[in-house]
Amino acid sequence: MASQFPIVDIHTHIYPPSYLSLLRSRTTVPYLLDLPDKTHPPRLIILPSDDDPSLPPESRGRPIDASYSSITQKLHFINIHNITTSIISLANPWLDFLPPSEGPQWARTINDELETLCQETPGRIYAFATLPLSAPPATIVTEIHRLQHLPHIKGIILGTTGLGTGLDDDALESVWAALEETRTLIFLHPHYGLPSSVYGARAHEYGHVLPLALGFPMETTIAFTRMFLSGVFDRFPRLRILIAHAGGTVPYLSGRIESCVQHERQFPPSSTGHRGPERDLRTVLRENVWLDAVVYSETSVKAAVELVGEKKVMFGTDHPFFPPLEDGAEKLMSVETNLEAVSGCEGKVGILGGNAVELLGLKPAVDR
Q1: Is the peptide bond before 324 cis (omega within 30 degrees of 0)?
Q2: Which residues pair with 128 in a beta bridge?
Q3: What is the DSSP string of 203-222?
Q4: What is d(CA 150, CA 73) in angstroms, rounded to the nearest whole number?
Q5: Apex CA 296: angle with CA 291 and CA 302, to 5°?
Q6: Kind of pairing between the strands at 43-45 and 85-90
Q7: What is the largest CA-CA distance in the chain?
Q8: Is 295 helix (H, G, I), strand (E, B) or coil?
Q9: What would the pLDDT profile of 185-229 be if each residue is shown by its tens digit?
């Protein structure tokens, strides 16, 4: 039964066929490992910890079935969960690993493929594009401007390392300028986590729990805070950024971050003589930042709403990750948990879809 209001999934991923062919051509992380037994799905090896030669091939990384790459499977998923429209994005690690000479062409290929997939599903699927971040900034800027001619592209997904050294890198200035000028939404998403040493010698016993539950949110928090501390939002006050996983730990640590800024004596003076960020963190969060609600907890969604406002929090699923462990289950526990988390929040209709429709100028399909 269709919902009386739109439900928009702002955080959902895909590895389009062209990207899978790229991963299959590689033998170092990231790569796709095809198993000798073709009845088993290939294994996706995207983290160094996935590439453990002490493990049998069928135990490395994660299995990747058609739900990771098929737009038909994506449509089945959104129909089963009564979702009106999904904003798909290339899943990590994007194109960060490519040499500068290869990144631009792969970005064009994948972004054009995403646009085509969207055109084939009017009103159901839109996309966030990917950028060739290993290429020179001028080349990245060219791709940002090219994306303005792809009508179903509603922003870009960005990892936390930027050009390789983080999002406070001065070399990103022209990229921020182009994103601000074109009003392109940035979807900030983690991948690299924290150094594996922080998880301890027994980390292998816990699978992906520590890096996904703790490493990803802290990675995102640090990346955004580095942007803030370096004055990115002072120099580009109209920049728009959507932070994955409800902002990492930003909703809980924003007061501590601001207090540390207010008490810090080591900030070098800027060109205006000001020390530290000129705009306070609360202002940046209220004016420049949106958060998804992929956090599986009503308490955490309410914290996100309290931080940025009810009109700036948006539902997401993180599909196809976090699939059910039991065979044959169609509905994902993770999706149901996120829906329940939003249901008790003020402004839930907007969070479930209206906020995304307004922010991105979507035209959801009427007949599903």
Answers
A1: no
A2: 89
A3: GGGGTTHHIIIIIHHHHHHH
A4: 23
A5: 55
A6: unpaired
A7: 65
A8: coil
A9: 999 999 999 998 999 999 888 988 999 999 999 999 999 999 999
d(CA 26, CA 110): 17
- Strand pairing category for 186-188 and 153-158: parallel
Amino acid at 100: P
* Pick from 242, 241, 192, 255: nearest CA to 219: 192
Give me the residue label for tokens 């059910």.
324
Please report where in the chains the tokens 């971050």 appear, as a residue: 257
Tokens of 349: 């209709």
Give 291-319 pLDDT, tens digit per residue. 999 999 999 999 999 999 999 999 999 99
For residues 153 and 182, what is the distance between their CA atoms, to the nearest angstrom?
A: 12
The neighbouring-strand residues paired with 157 are 187
* Least confident among 44-48, 82-86, 172-176, 339-343: 44-48
Distance CA 294, CA 9 (A): 10
CA atoms within 13 A on the CB side of 251: 24
Residue 133 backbone dihedrals phi, psi, to 5 degrees: -75, -10
- The span from the first CA to the last CA of the chain, in angstroms, equals 10
Alpha helices in the chain (DSSP H): 17-24, 71-80, 103-119, 137-147, 173-181, 209-210, 216-229, 232-235, 244-247, 250-263, 281-288, 298-308, 333-343, 348-349, 355-360
Distances (CA, A) of 283 to 176, 233, 258, 269, 278: 19, 10, 11, 21, 10
